[in-house]
Amino acid sequence: MLETYIDQLTSLGLNNRDEYSKIAGRVYQRRPCNLLVFGVGYDSVTWLNINSGGETIFIEDNIHWMNVVRENLPDIEIIHYTYPTVHSQWKLLLDQKDKLLMNLPKWMFEIDWDVIFVDGPSGTGPGRMQSIYTTSVLAKEKTDIFVHDYHRQIETAYCDKYLGNMNDRVVVNGHSRLACYSS
User: What pTM value is reported for the model?
Assistant: First the structure.
């Protein structure tokens, strides 16, 4: 069954099979679990299916993508978030935790997240500074964290500062595309 999910994800052509295998395998292993995904897209239905019976919540800033996904998945739980940051500010914000913590509903900070996947917002615009820092606050001792596009300068800097040493990574074409932080 897991291979079917990985095939579905890979068929979308968005990420590499090795990246999807790592994330999907961990969600599948921990299901039903509490899964938080930063970013919605064509892969959202597969995350919901893999974690059937669990709690899967998405955070998205792009209204267009929210509408596209909701057309096919009207019951999906998406929290709309407007990021106040701009990716070009990443160096200035690196040590400003008070500006990095996302203003999410209080209940989200009370959930024991099993898996958090940072795949949003896009690398341009607001950048992933807040997503990565907030993940470091939301994560508990046994939370598995996956950060996509780790090879990019901002993701590397914020992951290294706020998430520490990764346990594993997926290298694609010589780049560390996916950083994995597991307990």
Answer: 0.93
Q: Pseudo-torsion of CA 135, 83, 33, 157, nearest 10°? A: -30
Strand partners, 58: 37, 78
For residue 149, the enclosing domain spans 2-181
The total number of structural domains that make up the chain: 1
For 15-43, write each residue's pLDDT tens digit: 678 888 889 999 999 999 999 999 999 89
| CA count, 13 A, side-chain hemisphere, 143 | 23
Cα separation of 177 and 151, whole Å?
5
CATH number for the domain harbouring residue 142: 3.40.50.150
pLDDT confidence band for 167 (50 / 70 / 90) = confident
